[in-house]
Specification:
58% of the residues lie in helices and 8% in strands. By secondary structure, the chain is mainly alpha-helical. It has a two-stranded antiparallel ribbon with strand order 1-2.
Length: 71
């Protein structure tokens, strides 16, 4: 069931025109260090909610590779 909820949430995030219409990885990576940390993710409610699911290596950051799986 958790996998179903995760999948549906990722689909909603990826298809949400309001969430990612004119937004790319670099617009979330505000400090330019090449990753999105939890503080940076807070600017987008959907991204903040899915942060742990997107952070597949559980290092506390979302890499470009991890982020690209949503788009």
């Amino acid at each position: 069931m958790k996998t179903l909820h995760k999948t549906l949430a990722l689909i909603a995030l990826a298809s949400s025109s309001a969430a990612f219409a004119a937004v790319d990885f670099d617009s979330f990576d505000t400090d330019g260090d090449g990753v999105i940390n939890q503080t940076e993710a807070q600017v987008n409610t959907q991204l903040a909610k899915l942060f742990d699911d997107l952070d597949t290596d559980a290092n506390g950051e979302i890499s470009k590779e991890e982020f690209s799986k949503v788009q």
